[in-house]
Design goal:
The complex is a heterodimer of chains A (325) and B (263).
Chain A lengths: L2 E5 L2 E2 L2 E2 L1 H17 L3 E7 L5 H6 L4 E6 L8 H12 L5 E6 L4 H12 L2 E6 L1 E5 L2 E8 L4 E6 L5 E6 L15 E5 L10 E8 L12 E5 L9 H11 L2 E4 L1 H5 L20 E5 L5 H4 L7 E6 L6 H4 L2 E4 L2 H16 L1
Parallel strand pairs in A: 1-4, 1-6, 4-5, 5-12, 6-11, 7-11, 14-15, 14-16, 16-17, 17-18
Antiparallel strand pairs in A: 2-3, 8-9, 9-10
Helix pairs in contact in A: 3-4, 5-9
Chain B lengths: L1 E5 L2 E3 L22 E3 L1 H17 L2 E7 L5 H10 L3 E5 L9 H12 L6 E5 L10 H9 L3 E11 L2 E7 L4 E8 L2 E5 L11 H6 L7 E2 L1 H4 L7 H4 L3 E6 L8 E2 L4 H14 L5
Parallel strand pairs in B: 1-4, 1-6, 4-5, 5-11, 6-10, 7-10
Antiparallel strand pairs in B: 2-3, 7-8, 8-9
Helix pairs in contact in B: 3-4
Classes of the chains: A alpha/beta (325), B alpha/beta (263).
């Protein structure tokens, strides 16, 4: 019986969405693998959070230690290694959040477990799980097996396992003494830092002209500014544009940037990796121009043009000006 | 500050038209350009900038096939002091765990204060090697690091969280940090810098010289295995507006106007 452990994630005394998504994935895996479902909560103060989890999970294992007020991968790795070392066969499920990305690889080594990161689906055949994830700039899907490992760690693609409440009787909450009570962490949280705010707030814009890697290494930014002006919109971008200092960070759309909810989103030279698309909320009209006909952005866009931006963008500006009269 | 930078040689798939290879275990890579993984380029630059500020030595290392020598030489031209090329046919097909095993074996007996690498590789998108390597060497780690400063035997850094939020973190040295893209501006490599390192020796070290058994590397030493790859299903997808740039732009302008995309 493969036991399923779901690692809860919290910030500022509140469980994060990734926790519930991991619980959703864990539930399905527990059903497919015929094992017990447990949730693990590492926190300084379990009040509220443990009960909230117990409503959805048959058993919640709680470690209370002041070190876990904020996420600390160093202490978490040691605590989880101690808790899970004698629990094989098991699968540990957690979000692929920026915090958990610190934890999962080292933990897999500490547990001598097989690790698949950023999984968007699972399949169980003959009692053996396989994971689906993406490779090659997120353009290719891959099915990955764990070579029969008895200890498996998986992290989940954000949004891939939407949570639905299970109902049923409340589960048990079991407190475990902190395995790291006497250990000084080698890593210490200091404070949160908010991103710099700029003169443009793309989060509240209705019309967004967004630029991606496909605009090239030395783009003529004026043609894009001019198009955004003609449309009455603002410029936004994906990560590579910020990395090249073509636009400041507060223009970046995506899970690590700003979440936007425009009426119209015009994506120019944006491939459409999930981190970017994850930042476009609601159901806006997404229109994409890209020279790569296979760019993932065309799967989420309603309209697209496969072509050269240097030709399409000035032509589009002209046509828009004509329509405005 | 002695810094070891681990870099990866990857196919450039960002703009390329990809196709699945026969057997469906991988994509066709022969026609793709290869280069240093974009994230790792920032790691090399960061290491060189730290050295320029506080002194020390920068060592660049890669587990990569023969062609990757040019990446290591370019790293020297960027300012690294030495480069090591770890390769053996037995390394082919290594997953993140096996690659970390090889790197850990190479690094184990070398003095270092900091190991830098990129957070993700553009080919497998796994983000495993940095954290695994840190655990194998028994040092703390973090990923998505977007700025680094040094205090006495400690490193203070900013790490990217979601939604534009960062956290400031302090960590004991030695440590392993995986950097985010954009934490610096990788320098332009001059022809003069390239010439200067043209004859620098880049030792190639194989499985035996590292003291590894072939069962620890390649598919045998891997913890996971890619069973099948496929292009994602097309789904509904966008309605592609055909015609030349002029015609398509005209049609798109009308759609935008109709949907409120012209304010």
């Amino acid at each position: 019986m493969t036991r399923i452990f779901v690692l809860a994630e919290h910030r500022l005394q509140k469980l994060r969405d990734a926790t519930w998504e991991a619980l959703e994935a864990g539930r399905k895996l527990a059903a497919d693998l015929g094992g017990e479902l447990n949730c693990i909560l590492l926190t300084d103060n379990a009040a509220g959070m443990a009960d909230e989890l117990a409503k959805e999970c048959p058993k919640v294992l709680v470690v209370e230690d002041p070190k876990f007020e904020t996420f600390n991968s160093d202490s978490a790795m040691k605590a989880l290694a101690a808790i899970l070392s004698d629990k094989a066969p098991f699968m540990l499920v957690m979000g692929n959040s920026n915090s958990m990305m610190d934890l999962a690889p080292g933990l897999a080594v500490a547990l001598d477990a097989a690790l698949a990161t950023d999984c968007f689906a699972f399949e169980v055949k003959d009692g053996r799980p396989a994971a689906f994830r993406q490779m090659y700039n997120y353009k290719v899907n891959a099915k990955v097996s764990f070579k029969g490992a008895e200890k498996i760690v998986v992290t989940l693609r954000g949004g891939a396992f939407p949570f639905s409440s299970g109902g049923g009787a409340a589960g048990a909450v079991e407190k475990i003494a902190s395995p790291v009570a006497d250990e000084a962490p080698r890593k210490r949280f200091l404070n949160y830092v908010e991103a710099e705010k700029g003169d443009v707030d793309i989060a509240s814009a209705d019309i967004i002209v967004s630029l991606g890697r496909g605009i090239g290494d030395e783009p003529d930014m004026e043609i894009f500014e001019s198009l955004a002006d003609a449309m009455g919109g603002v410029l936004a971008c994906s990560r590579p544009i910020v990395d090249k200092n073509l636009l400041p960070k507060y223009h970046q759309v995506g899970t690590s940037g700003v979440e936007v909810k425009p009426k119209v989103y015009l994506a120019l030279g944006i491939s459409g990796a999930f981190q970017h698309v994850g930042g476009i909320k609601g159901a806006p009209l997404i229109v994409a121009v890209n020279k790569d006909a296979k760019a993932p952005i065309f799967r989420v866009a309603q309209y697209g043009i496969v072509g050269d931006l240097n030709e399409v963008v000035p032509a589009l500006e002209e046509k828009i000006k004509d329509l405005k009269g | 500050m002695d810094i070891i930078v681990c870099v990866k040689w990857v196919p450039d798939t960002s703009e390329a038209d990809l196709a699945i290879a026969g057997g469906a275990k991988d994509i066709k890579k022969d026609d793709l350009d290869h280069d240093i993984n974009d994230w790792d380029r920032f790691a090399v630059e960061e290491a060189v900038q730290i050295k320029e500020k506080v002194g020390g030595k920068v060592t660049v290392v890669s587990v990569a096939p023969e062609d990757a020598e040019e990446m290591l030489r370019e790293s020297l031209a960027r300012g690294a002091d030495e480069a090591f090329h770890l390769w053996d046919d037995a390394f082919e097909g290594s997953d993140g765990y096996a690659v970390a095993t090889i790197l850990a074996k190479f690094i184990k007996d070398r003095p270092f204060d900091l190991i830098l690498t990129g957070t993700l590789a553009d080919d497998d998108c796994s983000g495993q090697v940095g954290g695994m390597l840190a655990a194998m060497l028994g040092v703390p780690n973090a990923v998505l690091v977007s700025s680094i400063e040094f205090l006495d035997r400690k490193v203070k850094f900013k790490k990217e969280l979601e939604g534009g939020l960062y956290e400031a973190v302090e960590m004991d040295l030695p440590a392993q940090l995986s950097v985010a893209t954009g934490l610096n501006e990788p320098r332009f490599v001059s022809i003069r810098a390239v010439r200067k390192v043209a004859s620098a020796e880049i030792p190639v070290i194989d499985c035996g010289e590292l003291g590894l058994d072939e069962s620890q590397v390649g598919p045998q030493g891997s913890k996971i295995q890619v069973e099948e790859v496929a292009m994602p299903p097309e789904g509904e997808g966008a309605e592609i507006i055909g015609g030349g740039a002029e015609e398509a732009a005209g049609r798109l302008a009308e759609i935008l106007k109709e949907k409120g995309g012209i304010g």
